[in-house]
Amino acid sequence: MIRQITKIFRPLVMAFAVTATLAGSPAAHAQEKKTIRIGWTAWSDAEAVTNIAKQLLEQRLDYKVELIMTDIGLQYQGVAKGDLDIMLMSWLPNTHKAYWDKLSSEVIDMGILYDNARLGWAVPDYIPVSEVKSIEDLNKPGVRDKFKSQVQGIDPGAGLMMASERAIKSYGLAGYKLLTGSDAGMIVALDRAMKRKEWIAVTTWTPHWMFSKYKIRYLEDPKQALGGGEAIHAVARKGFEKDFPKAATFIKNYKISISDLEGVMSKAKDSSYQKEAAAFIKANPEVVNTWLANAK
After folding, report:
1. Pairing relationship of beta strands 216-218 and 107-124 according to DSSP bridges
2. Percent of the chain beyond pLDDT 90?
């Protein structure tokens, strides 16, 4: 009786064993990889770039995308460890140099998304250029008082904040305090100060929609303490191209101009990044098709 039962169940046991083996095999595991975890930060350009990518990956390439919002430093670490699949906001060669020098051997550079970006400090146009033209002018006694010895910054882990700390040292702005906050918090502070015609200096970057809404200007940075031109790269974990070949092809083709990006950002501030990403995709089929070429 036992032998008969064994004969009956042996094929089932073997079939189960084969199924379990295949499920755990690299080929089966690769086929199951459909969810892409993208790290992002609540910066205007990051939201625009990431939302466009998310919609194309999901709607055109049949992936599921999970957006993980976290500090930029944790994004680099997450990609290096494999906890994140990719990030679309690596500012090189200067802004994120510290992160890149430490982790570049553990990640894959997927190429440039857009370039001609820059970091800087900006002030309202109603502040006379004759009094404040460059960062070094912030040291003038009367000027220092009008700015209340402070510069409004963004989130503390940002490369812009690290560069701003260097700028304070480079220009000898002793007594100046770099206020931390967020992109949105910086805008609120700028908006409030401009309505009151107060003097304010904020950390900012290009591309950013604030330049289309507010009459502001960059302060000159003769020592280039905040760096020069920057390019924004996509950075992926090792194995990304093998696990997500269609996505990898798309990301390598994904190039967007500063003007197009600022257009999405400017509209999104009164709408949403999801809505404006969709509108951009619909309005630019030829551009989108070049991004998706060979990815399907």
Report:
1. antiparallel
2. 80
Q: What angle do CA 198, 203, 209 make, to 5 degrees?
A: 90
**Region of residue 92 (left: phi > 0; alpha: psi -120 to 50; beta: else):** beta
Q: Which two tokens stand for residue 251?
A: 């990301």
| pLDDT at residue 296 in the model | 75
Tokens representing 55 are 């919609």
Report the distance separating Cα 164 and Cα 169, nearest Å: 9
- The answer to whether 227 touches 95, Cβ cutoff 8 Å, is yes
pLDDT for the residue 10 = 38
pLDDT digits (tens, 9 = 90+) for 137-168: 999 989 999 999 999 999 998 999 999 999 99
d(CA 176, CA 132): 16
- Quick check: 52 pLDDT over 90? yes
Query: What is the Cα–Cα distance from 103 to 189, expressed in whole angstroms?
Result: 34
User: What gap in Å lies between CA 131 and CA 239, rounded to an integer?
Assistant: 54
Q: Which two tokens stand for residue 68?
A: 């993980």
The helix/strand/coil state of 136 is helix
Are the beta carbons of 99 and 160 closer than 8 angstroms?
no
pLDDT at 212: 85
CA distances to 16, 52, 57, 61, 222 from 268, rounded to whole Å, are 52, 12, 20, 24, 34
pTM over 0.85: no
